[in-house]
UniProtKB/TrEMBL annotation, chain A:
<feature type="transmembrane region" description="Helical">
    <location>
        <begin position="25"/>
        <end position="45"/>
    </location>
</feature>
<protein>
    <submittedName>
        <fullName>DUF4129 domain-containing protein</fullName>
    </submittedName>
</protein>
<dbReference type="Pfam" id="PF01841">
    <property type="entry name" value="Transglut_core"/>
</dbReference>
<dbReference type="InterPro" id="IPR038765">
    <property type="entry name" value="Papain-like_cys_pep_sf"/>
</dbReference>
<dbReference type="InterPro" id="IPR002931">
    <property type="entry name" value="Transglutaminase-like"/>
</dbReference>
<feature type="transmembrane region" description="Helical">
    <location>
        <begin position="210"/>
        <end position="228"/>
    </location>
</feature>
<feature type="domain" description="Transglutaminase-like">
    <location>
        <begin position="454"/>
        <end position="524"/>
    </location>
</feature>
<feature type="transmembrane region" description="Helical">
    <location>
        <begin position="57"/>
        <end position="76"/>
    </location>
</feature>
<dbReference type="InterPro" id="IPR025403">
    <property type="entry name" value="TgpA-like_C"/>
</dbReference>
Automatic annotation (TrEMBL), chain B:
<dbReference type="InterPro" id="IPR050764">
    <property type="entry name" value="CbbQ/NirQ/NorQ/GpvN"/>
</dbReference>
<dbReference type="Pfam" id="PF07726">
    <property type="entry name" value="AAA_3"/>
</dbReference>
<protein>
    <submittedName>
        <fullName>AAA family ATPase</fullName>
    </submittedName>
</protein>
<dbReference type="GO" id="GO:0016887">
    <property type="term" value="F:ATP hydrolysis activity"/>
</dbReference>
<dbReference type="InterPro" id="IPR011703">
    <property type="entry name" value="ATPase_AAA-3"/>
</dbReference>
<feature type="domain" description="ATPase AAA-3">
    <location>
        <begin position="59"/>
        <end position="188"/>
    </location>
</feature>
<dbReference type="InterPro" id="IPR041628">
    <property type="entry name" value="ChlI/MoxR_AAA_lid"/>
</dbReference>
<dbReference type="GO" id="GO:0005524">
    <property type="term" value="F:ATP binding"/>
</dbReference>
<feature type="domain" description="ChlI/MoxR AAA lid">
    <location>
        <begin position="256"/>
        <end position="316"/>
    </location>
</feature>
């Protein structure tokens, strides 16, 4: 048993809580925390390499860095090691510049641009947007890992947290480190410093409770206050489309296109296009697939009418696009070659050839685009061969690491009869259109959306169809990309197409040598139209024929169908049997009604799922809650609430007996609490005897003058300093203190002592 | 008598070496103090300190102005315990052999005979020790530390008990050789008597003018008993919490002064505390014993940052701030 006497003189008793633990334990804990901090950002980097490849290399370089750090920790002084880390980092980045084609000379010459790039990264440009993201990751990882592990092994935990923290902070700023990774990294850093201090100062386990409280505070704060931007910034959606709409999902952010669960359709008119013929109005091209989103790599540059026309036969289409709402994209038929109008000054073009506005278009903005329509015949496509240019294979064959062999096997099965890339594409397109149903009401994918859609799901919407087809074709080594935009929309009498939010769409472009990018449509058109018409119809009903009426809605059907048929023809899908290319409006209506009738129960299902989602607690959440609870307990312990409560009770009750010495001591402690309550607590440097003597001098009467008090003190001294007391003596002390305390129970005690007199 | 002491081997005492009971020693000390205070008026605390020093096998340094009764204190204690009392007046021309003794050629036996110096006494008063040159000082101080003196290559045991009470004149600093810090450390305690309070001084005059009471002072005990009492003190229990407390106190002085208390100081502190416990009738040391002894035992072993006279303030701080019970921090 030991006694703590705080600076304020309060005293509490705990049982061997100050048993100092070997600093070895704290060292292990501190080193563990450094590893956790390192792991937190390596995990973020691994998320990048999982998508672009190079996970093994990443782990290898980090592992080598740790081993080298271990060796260096024994041999090399800190200054040398720090210099080595910076040198390694410099060499690494020089290598990165070589690989990314800039060259070291170029890098040095373009220092400004590098600074600008760094600023862009630090202000939220995701790592995945980088073309050489894999190389960058591998170059970035080892230096901080080496330095922090080296410093940790040298026992400089606070310093070791700096490189790890800086690395993590950078990834937080790029938006790649999610809340969980950041939190774990921060906890690791905190733990490293905390346990390191405990090791250095020979702390005890009892002091680790402060650390537990800090952990809890960090978690609670990070969950309740958002200080750092996590994930991409607020999405710039087309015309303020609400979250949860198909449109919002497809174009959730200019550089990224998400794959969500259930989506709604927005009937709002986005823009109108004046053109000779309908087309899909493309707004985005994406090359990098993460498993749950599409990312556009590379940077945009100002558009200067210098986009090379597709190599194959071409046909020009002039379109006049007028924005009807605020618009964050510039829809245009593929492949836009030139832009005219006011907006041309702030038009940018992505590395992939898609135009987009640097700032969102205002309502009423209008521009003229001339596009080169690629429309080769199936025969041409069949004979296009596989002589792909390097810049095409570099970007458009990417698949995330860990794509299952099952996915590849199924794809191979589906394309078993296909011999050319074109036949592959057609086979996949036909398979998806025929085997999967169209539905906007789907569970969000847990793992790889393409894989899950192909292997497990029975229905989905255009995002799923297009994603699956892209990844399947890539699995067959056909360069493919995922594109987003709008379908042709609803034609009006004066040659205009009115495009609404619900026309948002995603499809696929496949590259053919000498021809260029050719669009393919894996989404079953008629089913899609049904669903979309319903949405429009509902909206029109709501508006009670405000501007459109029922017949216009039917017209829209026809237009979309026509368009879809065009698409079919263009990609040479000769499957009129499977898919009616021209719909009978009557059938359509009937089916639509059926669909409407069947729509109700589905809603209930969603509710149940929502509730389940609320109830279920993820493992991370459970762990966080556990840490918070431990922190709470430690905090209660630290503030001494338990000790105080126990003491208050302990004054009146001795509790379980142990050996006589301890009992005599505990009896005295109880007496001390009584004295502290009646007079004042014992001062820090005051011995028990001095305390009683001082109290006796300060007061005329009371506890300090009670002979029993002196006896308890004497027995206490004998127990602690005089080699011990026997059982009987200890019991006498206990009995004396029992009496003394009971005489002083508020109210009851007073009455009792009065009654006794 | 000095011859007898000189040939007295410590082994010979072992028969009578049985420790006394604590109560008897406590009574003895009461008698002793009462006896001494017949002569020394108003310095009860100092008397107690000297008695604990003797019982705790330590030496005492009295620092004060002349004429406050330093010599009388030493003499009356020596008389009370029926021990030999020797006095050395330290002067600038005093030689080491004047303290330890010399071999003198005996014409009759034609042999050298050892003529013991004043250090061969049970209670030795080194008067104005700081007026002698360091070489002579160190002769006495070596005797204090070793319990023996070496003259002409022959080592001679000093009698037991052997306690030095040295006085230091604090009024003429430019005519003195200050004791080196390391040698100060060999004194268990450094005391100041100070002037007596006015009423006490009146009592003192009443007693001493005319017939001095020291002439009629009778011993209350003998040398044998004193040796046995010292054994009792040596066996007083010092439990771990007390040792830890002493260590913390000493540690505090080391942290808060230029030179803190040496381990020798810690040992002295606990020995003095043992003696005090016995005086209080206890067979074990409680922290209060340590606290009572700490100011006189520790202060002169501390050199403060400000290089003030001694570490009294530091010891006071230590007593106030260092927790008596073990703390967690």
């Amino acid at each position: 048993m030991s006694t703590e006497s705080g600076s304020d003189g309060t005293r509490s008793v705990s049982v061997d809580a100050d048993a100092t633990v070997g600093s070895e334990l704290f060292r292990v804990l501190a080193l563990g925390c450094v590893l956790i901090a390192t792991a937190s950002y390596v995990t973020v980097l691994r998320e990048v390499t999982r998508i672009v490849g190079g996970t093994q290399s990443l782990f290898l370089v980090v592992g080598v860095a740790l081993v080298v750090a271990t060796v260096f920790a024994r041999l090399v002084r800190p200054r040398t090691a720090t210099a080595a880390a910076f040198a390694a980092g410099a060499v690494g980045f020089a290598y990165y510049f070589e690989v990314s084609g800039v060259g070291i000379g170029g890098a040095l010459a373009g220092l400004e641009e590098i600074v600008a790039d760094t600023v862009r990264l630090a202000t939220g440009l995701n790592l995945l947007r980088m073309i050489e993201a894999g190389t960058w990751t591998i170059v970035f990882a080892p230096a901080p890992a080496f330095l922090s592990w080296y410093l940790a092994l040298r026992g400089r935990y606070a310093a070791s947290v700096v490189p790890a923290g800086a690395a993590l902070l950078f990834l937080v700023l790029t938006g790649d480190a999610g809340t969980t990774a950041t939190l774990i990294g921060a906890l690791g850093a905190l733990g490293a410093v905390g346990f390191g201090e405990l090791e250095r100062r020979g702390g005890s386990i009892a002091q680790a409770d402060v650390l537990a409280v800090l952990f809890a505070i960090v978690i609670v704060l990070s969950l309740s206050v958002t200080i750092v931007p996590s994930g991409p910034a607020a999405p710039v959606t087309a015309g303020g489309g609400d979250d949860g709409t198909l449109e919002g999902t497809i174009d959730s952010a200019s550089e990224q296109s998400g794959i969500a669960g259930t989506v709604d359709l927005s009937p709002e008119v986005r823009f109108t296009v004046e053109a000779d013929r309908p087309s899909y109005w493309r707004t985005g091209i994406y090359d990098r697939y993460t498993g749950d989103a599409w990312v556009r790599t590379g940077q945009d540059r100002p558009f200067e009418d210098d986009v090379p026309p597709p190599p194959g036969s071409e046909e020009r289409l002039r379109q006049t696009v007028t924005a009807e709402t605020e618009l964050g994209v510039m829809p245009a038929a593929a492949q836009p070659l030139s832009v005219e109008g006011d907006v041309v000054d702030y038009t940018e073009v992505s590395m992939h050839g898609q135009i987009r506005p640097a700032t969102p278009l205002a309502e009423g903005d209008s521009y003229v685009v001339e596009s080169a329509i690629v429309d080769p015949s199936p025969e041409e496509l069949r004979n296009a061969g596989t002589d792909y240019p390097e810049e095409v294979t570099e970007y458009y064959l990417q698949t995330p690491e860990g794509t299952s062999s099952e996915f590849e096997a199924r794809t191979a099965e589906i394309t078993a009869d296909a011999e050319t890339p074109y036949e592959n594409a057609v086979a996949i397109e036909r398979y998806l259109r025929s085997s999967k149903e169209y539905s906007l009401d789907v569970e969000p994918p847990e793992e790889d959306a393409a894989e899950q859609f192909l292997l497990e799901m029975d229905e989905g919407y255009c995002v799923y169809f297009a994603t699956a087809m892209t990844q399947m074709l890539r699995a067959e080594d056909v360069p493919t990309r995922y594109v987003t935009g709008y379908t042709a929309g609803e034609p009006t009498d004066d040659g205009e197409y009115v495009v609404r939010g619900l026309d948002a769409h995603a499809w696929v472009e496949v590259y053919f040598p000498e021809k260029g990018w050719v669009a393919f449509e894996p989404t079953p058109g008629d089913e899609r139209d049904e669903v979309h018409d319903e949405a429009l119809e509902e909206e029109l009903d709501d508006e009670a024929g405000d501007e459109d009426d029922q017949s216009d809605g039917d017209d829209a059907d026809d237009g979309a169908d026509d368009e879809a048929s065009d698409e079919d023809d263009r990609s040479g899908v000769d499957d009129a049997d499977d898919e009616p290319s021209v719909d009978d409006p009557a059938d359509d209506l009937i089916e639509r009604n059926d669909a409407l009738a069947g729509g109700e129960p589905a809603d209930d299902g969603i509710d149940v799922r929502d509730i389940l989602a609320l109830v279920s607690v993820t493992r991370e959440t459970a762990a966080m809650i556990a840490v918070v609870l431990i922190g709470l307990v430690a905090g209660v312990h630290r503030t001494g609430a338990v000790a105080r409560a126990r003491r208050t009770l302990g004054v009146y009750r001795h509790g379980r007996r142990s050996d006589p010495d301890r009992d005599a001591e505990r009896a005295f402690r109880r007496l001390e609490w009584l004295l502290a309550r009646e007079h004042r607590p014992r001062r820090r440097g005051e011995s028990a005897r001095e305390y009683l003597r001082a109290l006796a001098a300060e007061t005329d009467d009371g506890l300090a003058h009670d002979p029993r008090t002196a006896a308890v003190l004497e027995r206490y001294e004998r127990a602690v300093y005089g080699g011990g007391v026997d059982r009987e003596t200890a019991d006498e002390s206990i009995a004396a203190v029992d009496d003394l305390s009971r005489e002083r129970v508020p109210l009851v005690g007073r009455r009792r002592s009065e009654g006794a007199e | 008598m000095s011859d007898a002491k000189q040939t007295h081997e410590p082994d010979a005492e072992s028969a009578a070496d049985e420790p006394l009971s604590v109560d008897r020693v406590a009574d003895l000390c009461d008698d002793l103090a009462a006896n001494v205070s017949r002569v020394i008026v108003g310095h009860d605390e100092a008397i107690e300190h000297v008695v604990t020093a003797i019982l705790g096998r330590g030496h005492v340094l009295l620092e004060d102005v002349p004429g406050v009764g330093k010599t009388m204190l030493a003499r009356s204690i020596a008389t009370s315990v029926d021990c030999t009392f020797r006095r050395v007046q330290f002067t600038p021309d005093l030689l080491p052999s004047d303290v330890t003794g010399v071999n003198v050629f005996n014409q009759k036996t034609r042999e050298f005979e050892f003529q013991p110096g004043p250090v061969f006494g049970n209670i030795v008063l080194g008067d104005e020790i700081n007026r002698a040159p360091p070489k002579t000082q160190s002769a006495l101080l070596e005797a204090m530390e070793e319990g023996q003196v070496t003259v002409d290559g022959e080592t001679r045991e000093l009698p037991a008990p052997f306690t030095v009470i040295a006085t230091q004149n604090a009024v003429e600093p430019n005519r003195t050789y200050d004791l080196p810090f390391a040698e100060l450390d060999r004194f268990m305690k450094k005391l100041r008597l100070g002037y007596p309070a006015p009423n006490e001084e009146a009592k003192l005059l009443e007693r001493t003018v005319g017939h001095h009471p020291i002439e009629s002072l009778d011993p209350v005990t003998d040398r044998e008993t004193l040796v046995r009492a010292r054994e009792t003190v040596a066996e007083v229990r010092v439990e771990e919490p007390v040792r830890a407390y002493a260590t913390r106190l000493v540690g505090y002085t080391r942290d808060n002064a230029q030179v803190g208390v040496s381990p020798r100081g810690t040992i002295a502190l606990l020995r003095a505390a043992q003696a005090r416990a016995v005086i209080d009738g206890r067979g074990y040391v409680v922290p209060d014993d340590v606290k009572a002894e700490a100011p006189v035992v520790l202060s002169h072993r501390i050199r403060t940052h400000a290089d003030a006279q001694d570490g009294t303030d530091v010891v006071e701080d230590a007593l106030e701030r260092v927790s008596v019970d073990r703390t967690r921090g």
